[in-house]
Amino acid sequence: MLLLTDMLQLIILKKGEVMKKALIIFTVLILANPTFARPSWCRNAHTSVEKRICHNRYLIDLDYELADVYYRIAHFLKRVDRSLYRKFVQNEKEWIRERNTDCYGMPDSCIERKYHQRIELLYSFLRKIEEEL
Predict the structure, then answer these.
(1) pLDDT tens digits, residue range 46-88?
(2) If pLDDT is split at 50, 70 and 90, which confidence band does 132 have?
(3) Which of 42, 77, 114, 133 lies most in the core, judged by the most C-beta atoms within 10 Å?
(4) Is 92 exposed, middle or buried (CB count within 10 Å of its CB: 0-12, 13-18, 19+)?
């Protein structure tokens, strides 16, 4: 999954300054409209925790940060070890179930804490992968 900044860099490299200006305007318009900034999975949010995430700008930002590191690891694992990749995907699904269960009826700070812990864990894993390369 390419992040908006990654897409911007790729397009800037290909199209030059005119395209850069158009993309900056486009980015400002997207970021100014919160409905565009929500993760795509929010359309299918079912649990109360998922719905709370989708209506909280800070939790959305944490979700994007988690998605970034998650997809970087997943992309690497998919190329090198399909079995480990499947386990990683399953682990993420289990974490989501745990987050939803543990934070049900709790303040948003519970969700925030779960995101911070998961992001820290995945970044630690990513650093280990990068050290081995």
Answers:
(1) 999 999 999 999 999 999 999 999 999 999 999 999 999 999 9
(2) confident
(3) 114
(4) middle
Which of 76, 81, 118, 83 minimizes the C-alpha distance to 97?
A: 118
What's the pTM value of the predicted model, to 2 decimals? 0.71
CA atoms within 13 A on the CB side of 13: 6
Query: In whole angstroms, how far apart are CA 37 and each of 30, 34, 60, 114?
Result: 7, 5, 8, 21
Taking the C-alpha atoms of residue 124 and residue 102, their distance in angstroms, rounded to an integer, is 23
For 95, the token pair is: 């974490």
- How is the chain split into domains, by residue range? 1-37, 39-132
Residue position matching structure tokens 């970087």 = 72
> Does 95 have pLDDT greater than 90?
yes
Give the distance, in angstroms, between the CA of residue 64 and the centroid of all CA atoms in the same chain: 3
Residue 109, exposed/middle/buried by CB under 10 A (0-12, 13-18, 19+)? exposed
Angle at 96 between CA 48 and CA 101, to 5 degrees: 50
